[in-house]
Write a structure and sequence with these properties.
Elements: E1 3-8, H1 16-29, E2 33-37, H2 40-46, E3 51-54, H3 81-93, E4 98-103, H4 105-127, H5 133-136, E5 143-148, H6 164-185, E6 188-193, H7 200-209, E7 213-215, H8 225-238, E8 244-249, H9 262-270, E9 281-285, H10 297-316, E10 324-329, E11 332-337, H11 338-353, H12 357-365
Parallel strand pairs: 1-2, 1-4, 4-5, 5-10, 6-8, 6-9, 7-8
Antiparallel strand pairs: 2-3, 10-11
The structure holds adenosine-5'-triphosphate.
Length: 370
């Protein structure tokens, strides 16, 4: 009987509970035992009560719960081999031979590292006399499957990450609220949204709310962005628009790599000198409201279908199978090589960091084959 564990790791995102629910119920449906590892890799390293067997009933009602009920954490110990060694020991002691991890690219990198080291970790545990040869015998192959939970939609190789549409919906809802007051007072608002390397939330929020101007990290503005934005806002105001909405991603920058801050944009919109816009301008930083709250229907659907697919992937895996993650591509739930997605994602982040924006845009537009 296979014993499958599920965990959530890294930053939380709406829909993670749906993943846990789907994995637990599908695992039980397929005749396996289901476990939840609490507090991400921290729980795996600590073991004991952090690893808990789950019943179908334990996850009742979890689809409509925000955040992650089994907790998530950043775990320093798991970056180091001794931490991963303890984690391996805890898995064997709990009889767990498959792990489904829902998290961002960091969590998936850790997962891949864990699986590639698995045989040597077991060997070391026997050498250290922490486990016997008999104890490790049934655990020669560790199955790991990744599911991407992130509000940023920042992983290459999948059209959407679990949580991104919930965050986008939340942003739109907040912008709608702001618009009402902006129109009433004829004000301008600079709205900062999450996204350090990835402007998906800012860009799509701009499209979905009809914002006047959007700043994202991958497509930095030319040096004359000040004139460009002012010209657009001037034009819209001349057309009789009583509100101005500018959306800026946390990681927005100009071509020289200098951060474009909400304060700078505000000062420009509020500039009362000759030719300036002189608008009564406020900054709203949306912050963690983008993360919190319940998942929208799309994320619940994605969490459920991907959770089910992850269990199937575990059960169909052979020792030769490459570690996969579950993606959605052109509306189909598919398995793809996990490390490829992580590498492509890191390449994109490095291109943005290194100010190679042409490359970043090209990478953003490429969908790697499965
Ligand atoms: P988010 O997108 O919200 O940042 P993430 O999964 O990328 O989510 P990280 O903090 O990067 O978040 O990673 C979560 C945890 O995964 C880390 O605290 C660490 O325990 C583990 N981890 C990340 N990278 C590695 C790595 N290279 N080796 C081992 N473990 C790692």
């Amino acid at each position: 009987k296979k014993r499958i564990a599920v965990m959530t790791s890294g930053g939380d995102s709406p829909g993670m509970n749906g993943v846990v629910r789907a994995v637990v119920r599908m695992a039980i449906h397929m005749g396996c035992d289901a476990f939840a590892v609490y507090e991400g890799y921290e729980g795996l390293v600590r073991g004991g009560d952090y690893i808990k067997q789950m019943d179908g009933e334990d996850v009742r009602g979890w689809l409509s719960e925000g955040g992650t009920l089994i907790g998530t954490a950043r775990c320093m110990a798991f970056y180091e081999r001794p931490g991963r060694l303890t984690a391996a020991k805890n898995m064997v002691l709990h009889g767990i031979d498959a792990l489904i991890i829902c998290g961002g690219d960091g969590s998936l990198t850790g997962a891949d590292r864990f699986r590639s080291e698995w045989p040597s970790l077991l060997e070391e545990l026997v050498t250290n006399e922490e486990l016997s040869q008999d104890q490790i015998e049934p655990f020669q192959h560790l199955n790991i499957v990744g599911i991407v939970g992130s509000i940023d939609n920042d992983l290459s190789g999948t059209d959407a990450t679990i949580g991104c549409y919930s965050a986008l919906s939340r942003i739109c809802e907040m912008v709608d609220y702001i618009e009402a007051t902006a129109s009433s007072h004829s004000r301008a608002f600079v709205i900062e949204v999450m996204g350090r390397h990835c402007g998906w939330l800012a860009l799509l929020a701009g499209v979905a709310t009809g914002a006047d101007f959007v700043f994202i990290p991958e497509r930095p503005q030319d040096q004359d962005w000040r004139q460009a934005m002012s010209a657009v806002v001037h034009r819209h105001r001349k057309m009789g628009k009583r509100k101005t909405i500018v959306i800026v991603a946390e990681g927005a920058r100009d071509r020289d790599g200098a951060k474009i801050s909400p304060e700078e944009i505000r000062d420009l919109l509020a500039d009362k000198s000759e030719g300036g816009l002189g608008l009564d301008t406020r900054i709203t930083t949306l912050g963690h409201v983008q993360r919190g709250g319940t998942a929208v229907a799309y994320d619940r659907m994605l969490a459920t279908l991907q959770g089910v697919e992850a269990v199937k992937a575990v059960l169909e895996a052979t020792p030769e199978t490459e570690t996969c993650f579950i993606a959605i591509t052109e509306n189909k739930i598919v398995r793809k090589p996990l490390m490829r997605a992580v590498q492509e994602t890191k390449k994109l982040a490095a291109a943005v960091e290194g100010k190679d924006f042409e490359k970043a845009m090209a990478l953003r537009d490429t969908e790697f084959a499965d």
